Amino acid sequence: MIALTSPYLWYTTRATGFVALILFTLVASLGTFVANRIGGTYIGRFELNELHRSVSIIAIMFLVIHITTTVIDSFVSTGWTSALVPMTSAYKRLPVTLGTVAFDLILAVWISSLLKARIANGTWRFIHWFSWLALATAVVHGILVGTDSRRSFGLVIVVVCSLVVVASAFWRYLGRPTRAAGRTALSPLAPIDRATRPPRASGNDPATTPRRGVRPSSPTTPPDDARRGRR
User: Fold this and answer.
1) Counted domains in the chain
2) Which structural domain, as residue segments, surrounds residue 55?
C-alpha cells in the first residue's frame, strides 16, 4: 500500500496541477470563441459550445485529483477545510488560499452553468466573468506554491498559458459582438421548456396549409359550371 508520504502523491499533485492549468486555459479560449460567435464554416457554434463544456468537465476532474492528492499527502499540513475555506491552511497560507479562492470561483461558474436554463441570463453572465479571475488566481497560486513553476519546462507552461489567457481576455473584450435582447442560444442537448417555446410560423399553420390532393381554388379561375355555360 502506498504511504501517505509517498513521492508518487507529490508527483501526481504537480502533474495534475499543470494539466488542470492547460485545460482551463483551453476552456477560456474556447469560451472566447463561443462568446464572439466564431464558427459555422468548418465547425459549428454548437459544436464549439459542446467542446467548451466537455473540456471544462475534464479540467475540473483533474483539479479535483490535484486537490485530493495535496490533502491526503501528509508531507504538507493541509486539510479538507483549506480546500474550500480560505486562510485555513497551516502550510503556505497565502499561496494555498489563492488556490482555494480559484477553486471556489470555478465551482461557482460550473454550478451556474448547470443552472443556466433556470437563472436569469444576466446573472449567469455576471458569474461567468469570475472564470477569468479564477484563472489569474490559479496562475499566481502555481507560481508561489509550485516548485516547478519557476524553472525550466514548468515556467514555460505557466508563461504560455498566461499569455494565452491575456490574449483571450483582450479578444473577448475587443471582439465581442452586439448581442440581441434575451437569452443566448442554448446547447441542442439542453432540455427545452415547452412553455417558453416560440410559436410556429404562420406558414406551418394547419388551418392555412392545403391538404394533399386538393387543388387550391384560384380567385381568377371561373368554376367548371360557368365555363360550361360559356360554350
Assistant:
1) 1
2) 15-174
